[in-house]
Specification:
This protein has 331 residues and is of the alpha/beta class. It is built from eight helices and 17 strands. The strands form four sheets. A seven-stranded parallel beta sheet has the order 7-11-6-1-4-5-12, sandwiched between helices. The mean pLDDT is 94.
Length: 331
């Protein structure tokens, strides 16, 4: 029997989270190295279209549990469904997104299956000799990268940050098998009931932003983010930040890019006053185009930048803002 690399497809109100497709893309690489197959799990209510979409993104087989009990996420019902599927089909690897839902769910599954779980992974590969999964993640506040193995228990489980891996190409011509399974849990058996749902207003969407303007210690103080905010507004961008300025209290954590923050893949990343320590670079180095502005010509950020400006950001950024305003007024 071929080893199974499983991906839990996270969905909310009938819409899949993009991290699920990113994980299917990575699972294809892992399955090739294992000579195995990629399979997906879809749980929810009236979510068969998502199961079909999983096939389009590269899953060879999809296990579908479609049940009114799964209409909205609750840990007990979703953990029960996934755990029972794992016991029945015995996957080698199970990957989930390191989202709020994924982090909550993964711990319950790993506990029930008595296996290990590596959280917030930024790298996955198969050991060519042992065929174990090597799971890499930042440790000690992002100061080192730890490679973690789970050689004695299955499945080998990881939660992976959104945007860590590229989105595979969607091919609606792909064919595969959808296997319907029963949840085996009634509404009466679920201890938690949802009375109401008040969505939190999302103010920052760094992970899927197409343009990001980020600031570091070179800003000199929190007031510098007002300038970056003006540039970001003109570009339709999100504002990012290095860990140093978040730790200093200049801007909220939700803006942090890097090992201990968000991993991003924008079309354009503008780094203002960011030196480019490895902890920051691993979170943004896969951006399509990187513009770095720094007074230090030896700053590490210039090693990965597509375009570097050696200069004072308080001269360069206002010039960019002026040029953009002029272009918009002429347009």
């Amino acid at each position: 029997m071929k080893p199974k690399v499983w991906v839990f497809v996270e969905q909310e109100e009938g819409e899949a989270h993009p991290v699920s497709w990113e994980l299917i893309g990575k699972a294809q690489e892992l399955a090739r190295d294992l000579e195995g197959e990629v399979e997906a799990l879809v749980l929810g209510y009236q979510v068969e279209p998502i199961a079909k979409e999983a096939l389009f993104y590269g899953a060879e087989k999809v296990y579908l549990i479609d049940d009114p009990v799964l209409e909205y996420y609750r840990n007990q019902s979703y953990a029960h469904g996934v755990t029972e599927l794992c016991r029945k089909y015995r996957p080698e690897i199970l990957l989930l997104g390191a989202t709020t839902l994924g982090r909550d769910l993964a711990g319950s599954i790993a506990t029930a299956l008595e296996t290990g779980l590596t959280a917030d992974v930024t790298g996955l590969e198969i050991d060519p000799e042992t065929k174990n999964l090597i799971m890499t993640r930042p440790a000690f506040g992002g100061n080192i990268m730890a490679s973690i193995l789970c050689p004695d228990h299955r499945p080998q489980m990881s939660t992976v940050r959104p945007r860590t891996f590229p989105l595979p190409e969607k091919d609606p011509s792909r064919q595969g098998k959808i296997i319907r399974e029963e949840l085996g849990l009634s509404e009466e058996e679920v201890k938690v009931k949802r009375v109401d749902f008040i969505p939190k207003e999302k103010t920052v969407n760094l992970e899927y932003a197409e343009v990001i303007v980020s600031g570091g210690r070179g800003l000199g103080g929190p007031e510098g983010f007002k300038l970056l905010g003006e540039l970001a507004e003109l570009l339709g961008a999100e504002v990012g930040a290095s860990r140093a300025v978040v730790d200093a209290g200049w801007i909220d954590y939700e803006h942090q890019v890097g090992q201990t923050g968000k991993t991003v893949r924008p079309k354009v990343y503008i780094a203002c006053g960011i030196s480019g320590a490895i902890q920051h670079r691993v979170g943004m180095q896969n951006s399509d185009f990187i513009l770095a502005i720094n007074t230090d010509p030896e700053a590490p950020i210039f090693r990965i930048a597509d375009l570097g400006v050696v200069g004072d950001l308080y001269e360069v950024v206002p010039a960019l803002i002026e040029a953009l305003k002029k272009e918009k007024s002429n347009g």
